[in-house]
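Question:
When you can, review this sequence-structure pair and walk me through the tokens.
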Amino acid sequence: MLDPGLVLVTGPNGVGKTNLIESIHVATQGFSFRTRMDAQLILAGQTEALARVDGTRAGVGFTAEARLSQHESKKLRLNGTPVASSDELRHRLHALVFTPDRLGVVKGGPAVRRAYLDRVIARVLPARADVPVTYAAALGQRNAALRRVAAGLSTADVLEPWTETVAASAAELVTARAEVIRILAPAFMACAAELGLADAAIGYDATPPTIAELESRVDRDLERGSTGLGPHLDEIHLRSGDRDLRSFGSQGEQRMAVLSLLLAEAEVLSDLVGVPPLLLLDDALSELDATRRRILNERVGRVGQAIVTATGAEALPLAPAQLLEVSHGSVAVA
């Protein structure tokens, strides 16, 4: 078990720091943040793997584990009791992760930001966790119907029920996205300002399509074989002042924006459920100057427990609660 507070994990590149973070994520969330193929998490030449975490939540001990096998489905347990799915596990244990790949939330295309926001909905508004899934299913059914009509395999009247379902579920999704941004935005702006990202803002200006709007463009949708209007095409804006951070933000500013989103979500979750989430920060300190590293160090240290990886202890301006050294797959307390 790790000490409470900020834990720094150090070691040269390639010795397994990210693997350690990933193992903790698999045990507490039920899946890897790097791959959805569980077989890739098993050591070459082995047929099974076990990720296990012992910890405390709100002062109560827990044990979470994920058992992976080349021959059987994944088995998740919390305090010895089977957990039906990764969704159930991560609703009971909250962990937020930063990796360099997460910069795609800012620098990637609109689909990455939509996917990010829909994941936040599941954590911050658990009663609406199924809203993005319901919309995606309805959209898929309408697109399939469009292709059948275009191929002459069905008549146009098969589109009507799916158009109604898409319009209804689109309204629910747009509402959920707007609500989660309303909740997240103040903390995001405050965290970004603390890190020195001036006038940061997250915005979502979307209107769900009506049945009439969807019906008015059926001919174009038939030509393309997909629905060309709806929240699956919306954009989420991340800005600093009047600058769009995707197009005009530096790599460092983009990193600060992603970290600010993570810290904001951690703050919101802590307020909502009364227990701060575990933060897993892999290579979060690079591309930040000494002042911002210190601010991040202090900020993260106020959020429950955080596990941060870096190539050396000097990357962290303030002393961690615990220092671990990773060397060729082994971990030792420094």
Remarks:
- The longest strand covers residues 48-57.
- The mean pLDDT is 94.
